[in-house]
Structure formats: C-alpha cells, structure tokens
Amino acid sequence: MQRQSGSNRRQFIQRAAVTVGAASIAPQLMAQSAPVRVGYAIARTGPWTGGAQVSQEPNYLLWAEQQNAAGGLDVKGVKRQIELISSDDRSDVETVVRTYEKLMGSDKVDLVLPPWGSNANFAVAPLANRFQYPFLAPTALSRRLVEMKLPYFFLLLQQPKPMCDAIVDMFKANGVKSVACVYVDDLFGLENYAAFKVALQGSGINLVEDKSYPAGVKDLGPVLRSIKDKNPDAFVGFTYPPDTILASRQAKEIGFNPKFFYASVGTAFQLYRNVMTPAGAEGVLGMGSWNAKTSPAAKAYFDAHTKKFQGKEPDRWASGACWAGLEILTNAVKSVGLDRKQIRDYVANTNHKTIIGDIKFTGSENTATPGTVSQWQNGEFEVVWPPKVATAKLNANKPAWR
C-alpha cells in the first residue's frame, strides 16, 4: 500500500478535525435554531370560556406574535421563534390535569403557560412541582395554594386577604355600617368569603346576610330580594362572570341599589360594560388593579391588545397580571436561558418591574402588589382604592341603575 506524504497526512488530519468539529457544533446550532415549544391548555368551550378568552389566551397569542415579530424569544442572547402547543381543556379539571401531564411528562415542552381559574390551577400546581416547570398563574386566588409551598408555582394576583382587607378598609373609610354577601360555592367563593368575614371582624360593619349559591346558577332573584329587604349599605358578590352579570341585571330589575355594589369576577371585563351599558355600569365596584393610566407600558399593552383583537380590550384585572407574568418569563429566559431550575430561581428572587407595577414573591405569593378595588366611571374601570394607587377618586354613592 502506498504511504501518504507528510503534507497529505496533515491535510487529512485537518479535514477530519473540521468534520468532527462540525459534527459537535451541529446539534448546538440545531438547538439554537429550533423553536421554543410553549405548551398550555385553556378553556375554549364550557363555563370557564368567558374568563379564559378575555384574561389569558389572547395575551398568550399576542405575546408569541410580538416575540416572533422581533426575531424570536431571546434565549440568553439567541433569538428563537415561539411555537405554541395548545388545546381546549373544555372547562374540565380532569382534562386540564391529563393535558399538562402530557405536555410536561411525554412531550417535554420547553415552557408551560397556566390554565384559567383557581380550580384548574389548584389541580395542576402539584404537577408543576413534580415536573419542575415554573408556573406564573394570573387567575388563581387561593390561600391554600400559598400554604402548599410549591416552589415552582407562583400566584400573580393579590390573594383573598389583601383584596378583602381593601374592600373593608374602603367601606370603613366611607361610613358603611351594614353589608350583605353572596358567593359561589367553590374554592374561589369560599376562600374569598372566609377572608371577607375575617376582615369584617372589629370593623363595626354588620354582616346582615350571607348566602352561597351553586356554580352555574340561573336565578339569584330570591336571594337579592331577601337582601333588599334588609336594606344594607353595601353588597358584595364573590361571583364568576356570568353570575356577576346575572346579579347586576336582577338587582336592577328589583330596584336593589345600595350605596356600594361590588361583584367579581367579570366586572373588570369590557363585556360587563357593554352588556350593562356604560351608564348602567356606572358606580359598580369589583376586583380590578390597573388600566391604561397605570403606566406608559400599560397603555402600550392596552393599545396593542385592542388593535390585534379588533377592539377587544383586555380586562382591567387579570389581563394585566397575565401580561406581567409573560414579561417576567421573558426576562427570565433572556437572563438564564431555558434551564427551568434557573428560571424558577430568577422568578423567586427578583424584584420584577411590570406594566402593573412591582411584583415580588414571598414563597408563591405576590406580596408587592397591594389589594385594590376598582369602579366603573364614565366608561372606564378606574382603580379607586387604596388612594395611593388610584387612577380616579372613589364615587362613594352609586347612582341609580340605568
């Protein structure tokens, strides 16, 4: 066999080295160019749809569109397109659990976005910890979730205690002496009602009636008539969007118009203003924490959302928290990449600047954002309590229903 010259041997070794180097670099280049797979389940059918399709999925779509239009999600200095992997959870807890188990367990997506509502998030929170995927939940209100101390699960909304403390503080400051309360008989309603009762202790405000009702209720008229007979200064409903509208319509029908009429979830929705009309919604209070006046970034988000969805506005409560969560996740990935443990540590240990203000987590709970109350005034859902974060002054005497 003919022997290679020294020059030929050197060329062969150089070519081999280039080939080996290319083979080792290729997987890295492929990983860098591959899309970031982001999975979630969301209600597109069933009773959760109204909330999910106002407060969450539109924000997921807008976020992915904006990131991709800018070249992709910044993954520690490398831009990669976002691929959303999503499905309808049909407003069913078992479907939620099965879907997230598949996304995290077998599909092994890069990131996950949370489902809608306290019940769904309560069901998937242990999975977040088991599979070690950070969840930034914008529509979960549950002290039990905080007490579970799950290191990968973070709640963006103000929880029942600060929200109810704000309501009672507002009532006390404005001379309320009596209040009636209705609440949906599930995790959301029960926890908020319990926190409200605790907040009332020692306030001098008399709880003249309190009634629970089943999810999917079709008639609150008898309960509201009973409350009207007691003539309370204030009414509080821990209600879901369809029930919030139902309670408002039936209160109008029977002429129940206390000085303070508070109902949530759903009061912060554009839908509420449209259904009740701006004049009919005037003075109604509910869970709200921001609007386009809150910050320049909040206005930019509001305008982008409204433009993309052809006039469909974000709600003035959980939509802001949802976008803030996406801001936090984006910054985390930019800082530490897609290592989920490092993302979790970044989320847990950083003071986050967001469109709704500072967010800082103590355990799972956002303890930087104060409890707030908002009110419909002249077609806008204004933050009215506490005064230090208000976008408008509280109207302490609701006008008659129109």
Task: Describe what this molecule looks like in 3D.
The protein has 402 residues and is α/β, with parallel strands linked by helices. The protein has a domain at 160-291 and 372-389: Rossmann fold (3-Layer(aba) Sandwich), CATH 3.40.50.2300. It has 15 helices and 18 strands. The strands form 7 sheets. It has a 4-stranded parallel beta sheet, sandwiched between helices. Strands 4-1-5 form a 3-stranded parallel beta sheet, with helices on both faces. It has a 3-stranded antiparallel beta sheet with strand order 12-17-18. The longest helix has 28 residues, at 6-33. The radius of gyration is 25 Å and the shape is globular. The protein starts with 5 loop residues before the first helix and ends in a 17-residue tail after the last strand.
Describe how the helices and strands are arranged.
Blueprint: H1 6-33, E1 36-42, H2 49-55, H3 57-69, E2 73-75, E3 78-80, E4 82-88, H4 93-106, E5 111-112, H5 118-131, E6 135-137, H6 143-147, E7 153-155, H7 160-173, E8 178-184, H8 187-200, E9 206-213, H9 221-230, E10 234-238, H10 241-254, E11 260-264, H11 270-276, H12 278-281, E12 285-286, H13 296-308, H14 318-336, H15 340-349, E13 352-354, E14 357-359, E15 361-362, E16 365-366, E17 373-377, E18 380-385
Parallel strand pairs: 1-4, 1-5, 6-7, 8-9, 8-10, 10-11
Antiparallel strand pairs: 2-3, 12-17, 13-14, 15-16, 17-18
Helix pairs in contact: 4-5, 7-8, 14-15
Please state the structural category.
alpha/beta
CATH class of the domain at 160-291 and 372-389: Alpha Beta
Looking across the biggest beta sheet, what order are the strands in?
A: 9-8-10-11
Say how many strands there are.
Answer: 18
In the CATH classification, which architecture of the domain at 160-291 and 372-389 applies?
3-Layer(aba) Sandwich
Number of helices: 15
For the terminal residues, how far apart are their CA atoms?
102 Å
Q: Any idea what the shape is?
A: globular
